[in-house]
């Protein structure tokens, strides 16, 4: 399943960013908002933002959004640590 959002040209023109950065910045904003509202996990939100774990963690910190760290994230981190 894929979703396309239609944003009016007047809105796109009002965004004070270079045209080539608008899509990426909107994806960042959406990912942060959905994560902050606990509608997406950290992994899915960073996937939406097209960022790696470190970059997305930094973005959340810049925005003052606290990480949601539960048992699923702990299991992922432990599994990763055991592979190293």
Explain what the structure shows.
InterPro entries: UPF0175, UPF0175_domain. It holds the Pfam family UPF0175. Belongs to the UPF0175 family. The protein is mainly alpha-helical and 84 residues long. The chain has one domain. It is built from 5 helices and no strands. The chain has helices at residues 9-14, 19-36, 42-49, 53-63, 71-83. The protein is elongated. The mean pLDDT is 92.
SSE order and pairing:
Blueprint: H1 9-14, H2 19-36, H3 42-49, H4 53-63, H5 71-83
Helix pairs in contact: 2-3
Family: Belongs to the UPF0175 family.
Pfam families: UPF0175
From the structure above, extract its key features.
84 residues; mainly alpha; UPF0175; UPF0175_domain
Q: Strand-residue fraction?
A: under 5%
The beta-strand count equals 0
Query: First CA to last CA: what distance?
Result: 35 Å
Output the number of helix runs.
5
Task: Kindly provide the radius of gyration, computed on alpha-carbon positions and rounded to a whole number of angstroms.
Answer: 15 Å
Biggest sheet, in brief?
none
The portion of residues assigned to helices is 55-70%
In short:
Belongs to the UPF0175 family. The chain has five helices and no strands.
